[in-house]
Design a protein that fits this description.
Chain A: It is found in: Nucleus. The complex is a heterodimer. By secondary structure, chain A is an alpha+beta fold. Chain A is built from seven helices and 18 strands. In chain A, strand 12 and strand 13 form a beta hairpin. In chain A, helix 5 (about 155-165) runs antiparallel to helix 7. Chain B is an alpha+beta fold. Chain B folds into three domains: about 1-130, Proliferating Cell Nuclear Antigen (Box); about 140-240, Box (Proliferating Cell Nuclear Antigen), CATH 3.70.10.10; about 270-280 and about 300-365 and about 375-385 and about 395-475, no CATH class. Chain B has ten helices and 20 strands. In chain B, the strands form five sheets. Chain B has a nine-stranded antiparallel β-sheet with strand order 4-1-2-3-17-16-15-9-13. In chain B, strands 12-11-10-14 form a four-stranded antiparallel β-sheet. Chain B has a three-stranded antiparallel β-sheet with strand order 5-6-7, covered by helices on one side. In chain B, strand 10 and strand 11 form a beta hairpin. In chain B, helix 3 (about 145-150) crosses helix 4 (about 215-230). The chains are: A alpha+beta, B alpha+beta. Chains A and B meet through strand 6, helix 3 and strand 9 of A and strand 12 of B.
């Protein structure tokens, strides 16, 4: 088992880990010859699935393993993020899987050479997972979305959510329709009624090849255009999810009414947007 | 003000020692592994500094200590206030009220004619200083605080220890954590960080290759942060693992000195023990010179003075009883037999101060008549500790047998005293504990639970080691309430 790479895009990697660290403590990192996957499945709350092409983060990437060159690791996110923060003034950063000399524990060793010729080594403790132990980890299945919409700037959403949370840190009801409208409302508090509405947003077109029953039968097409689809999420959690605004180029939200909210966060421009995608799954609370 | 905060990170109490020309603040942490001292020059650091001295030739001392939280609460917020506009501090006056009150009066004259006054209780005690022998420290380096501060930013906050070493023109700071973890817990281990850089980045570098010393990362970080805030260069002196390391820096009348005990690894502890056996055979008999100075009839006999650790150390010894017995044996038996028994251990600084002569204090005359007779009698002249805590009375005396088997930092209350020669103490370890000797016929008052502690420096008239010149017994506590008793106020 061998993994060694130099980090090409320290800033993206650091921003990515900072988003993930606010969602969970430990991630499953799956590395193979084509892509990098981070999976966060905490016992409750948001689940995050990250798919990145090798080139979006790494350079001079070497991976070998007995399991058809796939390596599965359990990585603590907070140390990983902290280690990456040491790379700020790095002229070169290398990440490799190795064993700690003192106790042979597996580590991800991040070696940083700074511009002042200082050498910083950060050793992140990891656990190597067997192929069998990760075989059952799959993305959740959702019904076809009732509404899909491109979200406004997550930064502006987040500042609104923070105000909501200051008023009453409980649930926030989120809704959108196929008419380019999106709203958030403080939920479950009868004393205060606050609602923010965004209009003139875009509902992206569906790719006919991706829709099994045909676009004309898709729930989002058959639905009344101005009818809102609602989901209810935890306000604090929603606020943490929106931190991803720091790296996102475009965010598509898919509403499965009263069931779930799925966010597709694209980190790259549209022409190359499959190379780096974060998928967030938020379950809706029942009213 | 910032200085106070730095010291406050180390110990529970802050001691203060005033002299004609300077003011010294110091603190020792609860595990006795770190000591901090800041000396403020009277004429340079302060606008006005007045400490009455009978004459130019004589130097008075006034020593007391504060509960650290209380002292900090006065200065900490003020420090931040001083940066904001409205109540910026323009002047700070500190005055001591002696007359039976033991209060320190702090007046802060702020902007807009706001005047804040604080009264703090203090406790008159003798101040003990860590003795560090620079001559024995083979390794020394000086480096800019700024550079160290940048390095420290790489280290995870939870990492415990910092190993300092050098090899082939590169110096390395490496963090590590001793706690063993298994299974899934392994992912909760703090980041292990190593920063290596060219020794040419030091202002001066004179450390041997391959010497590894480890200190508490938290302490070191605090020191570095303070040094950087003063834009000072940091000087470090050290010898071997298991021996203390001293860090000093200073600026504009402020001199900061930190003595940290370093961690010894397995191999180092063995070599250490070997040296100790060579240098310091057990000294079962007290130095004869101490005997005539016993003024109290019911003072415990001298041999008892060698047996126990001071009460304040007992709880620590209690927890590490087993391991210490092991090391104790090792001191006597051939070292090789115990190769497997060694493990990483944290040494403690030793306190071997003596009650300094109260006649040198300006306040003695007022105190003496009020002394409770029992405390004076319970304190043997060579005692190393002041009877300051009532909780000490409940300590278990049996643990006194386990003592003095770790490397020590020596302590001396008279270090800065001008009327005696500066004691030179090698940081070598004291004699191993003696078997417990039955108390002499003289009744020993347990009221103060003052276990005579080992006179760590006696070695049959060796002039070099004359730190503990047994003097008048410590006059216990001043005529005021113990700070420790008043603790509830600040908890």
């Amino acid at each position: 088992m061998r993994f060694k790479t130099s980090i090409r895009n320290v800033s993206t990697f650091t921003k990515l880990t900072s988003c993930l660290v606010s969602i969970g403590k430990i991630a499953w990192l799956r590395l193979d010859e084509d892509e990098i996957r981070f999976t966060l499945m905490p016992d409750q709350g948001v689940q995050v699935f990250v798919n990145l092409s090798i080139e979006s983060l790494f350079d001079s990437y070497i991976i070998t393993s007995a399991n058809s060159n796939i390596i599965n690791l359990e990585v603590p996110l907070s140390p990983l993020h902290r280690a990456l923060r040491s790379c700020v003034s790095a002229s070169d950063a290398t990440l490799r899987l190795t064993k700690r000399s003192s106790d042979n524990a597996p580590i991800l060793c991040l070696t940083i050479t700074t511009t002042t010729n200082t050498l910083v080594t950060q050793e992140i403790p990891v656990r190597v997972l067997s192929a069998a132990s990760v075989a059952n980890i799959k993305e959740p299945t959702c019904p076809e979305p009732d509404v899909h919409i491109i979200l406004p700037s997550l930064y502006s959403l987040r500042s609104v959510v923070e105000r909501f949370n200051k008023l009453d840190a409980s649930r926030i009801a989120i809704a959108a329709n196929m008419n380019g409208e999106f709203k958030m409302r403080l939920d479950g508090n009868d004393a205060v009624k606050v609602e923010s509405v965004w209009t003139g947003l875009m509902n992206p077109l569906l790719d006919p090849e991706q829709v099994p029953g045909g676009v004309e039968n898709h729930p989002s097409t058959t639905r009344e255009k101005s009818e809102f689809a609602w989901v209810r999420v935890d306000g604090k959690e929603w606020g943490r999810v929106l931190k991803v605004g720091g790296i996102s180029r475009r965010v598509v939200a898919c509403f499965c009414e009263d069931h779930a909210l799925v966010l597709y966060v694209y980190l790259t421009d549209q022409e190359d947007e499959d190379s780096a995608v974060l998928t967030y799954y938020l379950s809706s609370f029942v009213t | 003000m910032a200085t106070d905060r730095e010291i406050g990170k180390f110990g529970e109490y802050i001691s203060l020692e005033a002299r004609r020309s300077r003011l010294a603040l110091s603190s020792l942490n609860s595990s006795k592994s770190a000591y901090a001292a800041v000396t403020l020059a009277g004429n340079r650091f302060f606008e006005t500094y007045n400490f009455p001295a009978p004459s130019q030739s004589q130097d008075n001392r006034f020593t007391c200590r504060f509960y650290a939280k209380a002292l900090l609460s006065v200065f900490r917020q003020r420090y931040f206030d001083s940066k904001s506009g409205d109540t910026a501090i323009e002047r700070c006056e500190v005055r001591f009220v002696e007359k039976g009150e033991c209060r320190m009066l702090v007046r802060l004259l702020c902007k807009n004619r706001v005047l804040k006054t604080y009264r703090l209780t203090y406790e008159e005690v003798d101040v003990m200083h860590a003795v560090f022998d620079k001559d024995a420290a083979r390794n020394m380096w000086i480096v800019k605080g700024r550079l160290l501060r940048e390095f420290m930013e790489h280290f995870a906050p939870k990492a415990e220890q910092l190993d300092i070493s050098s090899e082939n023109g590169r110096a390395a700071f490496t963090s590590f954590t001793e706690k063993l973890v298994y299974g899934k817990e392994i992912l909760k281990q703090p980041l292990q960080t190593s920063v290596s850089f060219d020794t040419a980045d030091f202002d001066t570098f004179g450390a041997e290759d391959g010497v590894h010393v480890a200190v508490s990362l938290k302490d070191f970080k605090a020191i570095v942060a303070h040094a950087d805030s003063l834009h000072a260069s940091v000087t470090a002196y050290y010898s071997d693992p298991g021996r203390p390391l001293q860090v000093t820096y200073g600026q504009e009348g402020m001199n900061c000195e930190f003595t940290l005990m370093t961690l010894g690894d397995n191999r180092a502890s063995q070599t250490f023990t070997t040296t100790r056996v060579e240098h310091q055979p057990p000294a079962p008999h007290p130095p004869p010179r101490a005997a005539p100075q016993q003024s109290q009839t019911d003072t415990p006999s001298q041999p008892r003075g060698l047996m126990g650790p001071p009460p304040s150390l007992r709880s620590q010894f209690a927890s590490s009883f087993r391991s210490q017995r092991t090391t104790e044996n090792r001191a006597i038996q051939p070292v090789e037999e115990h190769q497997s028994s060694g493990s990483l251990y944290r040494s403690r600084l030793n306190v071997s101060g003596t009650g300094s002569s109260r006649s040198a204090s300006a306040f003695t005359q007022q105190q003496e008549p009020e002394l409770p007779p029992v405390s004076a009698s319970a304190v043997p002249p060579e005692s190393l500790f002041l009877p300051y805590s009532s909780s000490d009375e409940e300590s278990d005396d049996d643990l006194g047998k386990v003592a003095w088997d770790e490397p020590f930092l020596k302590w001396d209350t008279n270090l800065n005293s001008d009327d005696r020669p500066r004691p030179v103490v090698r940081d070598q370890s004291p004699p191993p504990p003696l078997p417990r000797v039955p108390p002499p016929a003289a009744p020993v008052s347990r009221k103060r639970a003052f276990e005579p502690s080992g006179d760590t420096t006696q070695s049959e008239g060796d002039e070099e080691e004359e730190v503990v010149s047994a003097e008048t017994a410590i006059e216990a506590v001043g005529p005021t309430q113990d700070v420790s008793q008043a603790r509830g106020l600040f908890d």
